[in-house]
Write a structure and sequence with these properties.
With 433 residues, the protein is α/β, with parallel strands linked by helices. Strands 2-1-3-4-6-5 form a six-stranded mixed beta sheet, with helices on both faces. Helix 9 packs parallel to helix 12 and helix 9 packs antiparallel against helix 15. 35% of the residues are buried. It is a multi-pass membrane protein. This is ABC-2 family transporter protein.
Length: 433
C-alpha cells in the first residue's frame, strides 16, 4: 500500500504542470538569476559615477590676491591637480559624469549637489597644499563599495606610475570614525621610497649656507566625507523597508487578482456579468480595492519601521504618500494582468512566483543595484521594483523635494495604465465564452 501511495503521487506530479514547474524549473531559474548577478555583477566591480573638481582653480584667485599659500604658483598647482583628474578620467573603473572639468570648471558646491541628487556617487575634489596633494571624496555612503574603489584610484593617480599601489591615510567624517588601517598597511615600495629620499637628503650637503633645501616629498592625504546620512538614527532602514514592501506588495496584488480566476471557476463571474455590471466596472472595482489595500500594507510597514527602527516617516509624508499610491497602483494592475493572462489559479501561482522574485532580484529588493554590473542595472529598469526603490531613495535618503520624483512617478503610472488596459483586453475571452 505504501508503494501505491507513492505511485499515485508520482502520477499526479507527472500530469500537474504547475507542480512540475515549481519543483524543477523554478529552483533552476532562480539559481540562474542569482548566479548571473553574482558572477556578472557582484563579482565584478561596476564603474563608479564620479564628479571631478579641481580645487586649485578656485585657489588661483586667492593666490593672486595674496591671501593663500603662494609656495607653488597657482598655474602650476592647477596643472598638477588637472593631471591627476585627467588620469582619473581615463580610469576604467570610473565613469565621469557630465559637467566636470575641464569643460565647465565644476566647483565643490555643484559637485556636492550632484551627489545629493544621485547624479554622481562620489565627487573627487583635488587640491595642492604646500608640498602634497589633498583630496576630499564627497561620498554617498549608501554605496559602501564606491569610496574604497575611488580612494585606491585617486591614490594611484596622485602617486604616479612610480608607485601605483601606495596607500594614503584615509579618514571619514560624519558617519564613520577615523581609521589608520591604510597607514598601518603602507606599501613597502612607498616606505622604501621615503627612506631613500631621506637618506639622500641627509648625505648631501648644500653648496653654501644660503642654500635652502626643497621641502621633502609628502604622501597625499585623502579624506572621505559622507554628505548623506548624517543626522539619521538608522540611515539605511528606508532602503530595506522599501525593498521588502514593494516585493510583498506584488505578491499581495497577484493573490488578490487570483480571485478573478476563483470567480471564473465557480461561475460567480458569469452571474456577476449577467447583472448590470460590466467587465470594465468589475476590473476597475478590483483595481481600486487592490490599490487601496496596497497603500495600507506599505503604510503599516513604514509605520512599524518608524516605531521600532527610527525611520523618519512623518518628516517625509508627502513624498511617501505619492510614491506609495503610484507603486500600489502599478502593483494592482500587475496582479490583474497576471490573473487575466492565466487560465487557472495554479498557473497564476507558478507564474507570479517566477515573475515577482525575478523582478525583485533584478530591481534591487534582494540585492542592492549599485553592486550589479551596468548591464544588470539597465535590465533592472524594466521592473517597477527599481523605479519604486529609486523613488523611495529620493524621498528618505536624499531628502529631495516631490518635484524630483517625476521620472519614477511617470514610469509607475504608465505601467499601471498599460497593464490595466492589457488586463481588460485579455478579459474579453470571459465575456465571449
Amino acid at each position: 500500500m505504501i508503494w501505491k501511495v507513492i505511485e499515485i503521487h508520482v502520477r499526479r506530479l507527472r500530469h500537474n504542470r504547475v507542480e512540475w514547474l515549481l519543483t524543477f524549473v523554478v529552483p533552476i531559474a532562480f539559481f540562474s538569476v542569482f548566479a548571473w548577478i553574482f558572477t556578472h555583477g557582484v563579482g565584478t566591480t561596476p564603474k563608479v559615477k564620479v564628479a571631478l573638481v579641481n580645487a586649485a582653480d578656485v585657489q588661483a584667485a586667492d593666490v593672486q590676491a595674496g591671501s593663500a599659500d603662494d609656495s607653488v604658483p597657482a598655474s602650476e598647482a592647477f596643472q598638477r591637480c588637472q593631471q591627476v583628474l585627467d588620469h582619473l578620467a581615463e580610469s576604467e573603473g570610473l565613469r565621469v559624469m557630465k559637467g566636470t572639468p575641464p569643460a565647465t570648471g565644476l566647483d565643490r558646491k555643484a559637485a556636492e549637489t550632484m551627489v545629493r541628487r544621485g547624479v554622481a556617487t562620489i565627487a573627487v575634489v583635488i587640491d595642492w597644499e604646500g608640498n602634497r596633494f589633498t583630496a576630499d571624496l564627497l561620498n554617498d555612503s549608501s554605496d559602501q563599495v564606491a569610496s574604497q574603489v575611488v580612494s585606491a584610484l585617486v591614490t594611484q593617480a596622485m602617486m604616479g606610475d612610480a608607485m601605483p599601489s601606495a596607500a594614503a591615510p584615509i579618514s571619514a567624517k560624519n558617519n564613520e570614525p577615523p581609521t589608520d588601517t591604510h597607514t598601518r598597511q603602507a606599501n613597502p615600495e612607498f616606505s622604501q621610497f621615503v627612506r631613500k629620499v631621506a637618506a639622500e637628503s641627509a648625505s648631501q650637503s648644500p653648496p653654501d649656507a644660503s642654500f635652502t633645501a626643497a621641502p621633502a616629498f609628502a604622501p597625499p592625504q585623502i579624506e572621505v566625507v559622507n554628505i548623506l546620512g548624517q543626522g539619521k538614527s538608522n540611515p539605511v532602514i528606508s532602503v530595506y523597508a522599501a525593498g521588502i514592501a514593494v516585493m510583498f506588495l506584488l505578491f499581495n496584488a497577484s493573490t488578490g487578482g487570483g480571485v478573478l480566476l476563483e470567480e471564473r471557476e465557480n461561475q460567480t463571474l458569469e452571474r456577476l456579468l449577467a447583472t448590470q455590471m460590466t467587465m470594465d466596472q468589475l476590473l476597475l472595482g478590483k483595481w481600486f480595492y487592490l490599490t487601496l489595500l496596497g497603500c495600507v500594507q506599505v503604510t503599516v510597514m513604514f509605520l512599524w519601521a518608524q516605531l521600532v527602527f527610527g525611520l523618519d516617516l512623518l518628516g517625509h509624508l508627502d513624498g511617501f504618500a505619492i510614491m506609495t499610491m503610484a507603486t500600489a497602483a502599478a502593483a494592482a494592475s500587475f496582479g490583474l494582468f497576471l490573473a487575466t493572462l492565466c487560465r487557472t489559479r495554479g498557473q497564476l501561482g507558478g507564474l507570479s512566483v517566477i515573475a515577482i522574485l525575478t523582478m525583485s532580484a533584478l530591481g534591487g529588493s534582494m540585492v542592492p543595484r549599485y553592486v550589479m554590473s551596468e548591464s544588470l542595472q539597465r535590465a533592472g529598469l524594466w521592473t517597477f521594483n527599481a523605479w519604486a526603490l529609486d523613488g523611495y531613495d529620493k524621498v528618505f535618503w536624499r531628502e529631495l523635494p516631490v518635484a524630483e520624483l517625476g521620472p519614477q512617478l511617470t514610469v509607475l503610472m504608465a505601467a499601471a495604465f498599460g497593464l490595466l488596459v492589457a488586463a481588460r483586453v485579455l478579459a474579453i475571452r470571459w465575456e465571449t465564452a
